[in-house]
């Protein structure tokens, strides 16, 4: 984890200052009831003012993206409010989706949604919940240059500015560690094949787990021997859920 980079990114997105952030868990997984759908968050952090920030990288422009945001926020609230606590103890909650597409086709880099009165748009509900879409395809001059540099990096890999350079250094470091981990996974896969005789359902399960971890299609194919078409199908099904 790189808390300084994460803190700086949240500050740039929301134009706020954060005293300190922390990761409640290294990989935040939230389960609700035993019969409900759990979620695994890409980056979830909290700050010293009881605010929570969930940052998610989106790949496809699916028609359920807004409802996914709604569900994420409800589970985060349910996870934070313990039994017996008062509703006032819920801090502000920000769900931030970083998208390589313009969901609303308005040319903006950033779209921020909060609860407002339909009859009087100046009247804000004030429940402390915010949903934010960042678009790498924005054309309007509506964000800082540093944040534009970040979105350009997400979109095309172009390194511009000190923050993006620092981010890219961290990415390269992670990739280096992932390569070492990939070698270990290869060893695990060999053991798995010897024990399970390469059962297809086990390969699918491993492929899905690797997709969640951000492995490339080529790496997944090399390890699981599944076809690229099958891996793409698994990826699409994962996104649609």
Structural key phrases:
241 residues; alpha/beta; 45% helix
What does the model show?
This protein is of the alpha/beta class. The chain has seven helices and eight strands. It has helices at residues 3-14, 65-80, 145-156, 162-196, 200-212, 217-224, 228-240; strands at 21-22, 29-30, 39-40, 43-47, 52-57, 93-99, 110-113, 129-135. The strands form two sheets. It has a six-stranded mixed sheet with strand order 1-4-5-6-8-7, with helices on both faces. It has a two-stranded antiparallel sheet with strand order 2-3. A hairpin with an 8-residue loop joins β2 and β3. α5 (200-212) packs antiparallel against α6 and α5 (200-212) crosses α7 (228-240). The longest helix is centred in the C-terminal third of the chain and has 35 residues, at 162-196.
Radius of gyration: 20 Å
Portion of residues within helices: 40-55%
Distance between the termini: 27 Å
Q: Looking at the chains present, what oligomeric state does this protein adopt?
A: single chain
SS class: alpha/beta
SSE string, helix = H, strand = E? HEEEEEHEEEHHHHH
- How many helices? The count is 7
Strand order of the largest sheet: 1-4-5-6-8-7
Largest sheet: 6 strands, mixed
Mean pLDDT: 81
Summarize this structure briefly.
By secondary structure, the chain is of the alpha/beta class.
List the helices and strands and how they pair.
Layout: H1 3-14, E1 21-22, E2 29-30, E3 39-40, E4 43-47, E5 52-57, H2 65-80, E6 93-99, E7 110-113, E8 129-135, H3 145-156, H4 162-196, H5 200-212, H6 217-224, H7 228-240
Parallel strand pairs: 5-6, 6-8
Antiparallel strand pairs: 1-4, 2-3, 4-5, 7-8
Helix pairs in contact: 5-6, 5-7
């Amino acid at each position: 984890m790189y808390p300084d980079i994460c803190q700086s990114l949240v500050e740039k997105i929301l134009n706020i200052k954060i005293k300190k952030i922390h990761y409640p868990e290294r990989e935040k997984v939230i389960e609700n009831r035993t019969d409900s759908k759990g979620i695994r968050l890409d980056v979830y952090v909290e700050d010293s003012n009881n605010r929570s920030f969930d940052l998610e990288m989106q790949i496809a422009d699916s028609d359920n993206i807004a409802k996914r945001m709604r569900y994420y926020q409800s589970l985060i609230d349910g996870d934070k409010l313990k039994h017996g606590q008062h509703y006032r103890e819920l801090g502000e909650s920000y769900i931030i989706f970083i998208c390589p597409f313009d969901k609303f086709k308005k040319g903006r880099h950033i779209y921020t949604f909060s609860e407002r009165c339909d009859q009087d748009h100046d009247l804000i509900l004030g429940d402390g919940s915010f949903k934010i879409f960042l678009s790498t395809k924005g054309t309007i001059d509506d964000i800082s240059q540093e944040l534009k540099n970040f979105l350009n990096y997400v979109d095309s890999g172009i390194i511009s500015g000190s923050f993006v350079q620092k981010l890219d250094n961290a990415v390269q470091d992670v990739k280096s560690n992932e390569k070492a981990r990939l070698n270990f996974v290869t060893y695990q896969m060999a053991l798995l094949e010897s024990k399970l005789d390469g059962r297809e359902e086990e390969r699918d399960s491993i492929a899905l787990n690797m997709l969640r971890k951000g492995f490339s299609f080529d790496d997944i194919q090399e390890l699981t021997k599944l076809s690229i078409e099958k891996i793409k199908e698994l990826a699409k099904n994962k996104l649609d859920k």
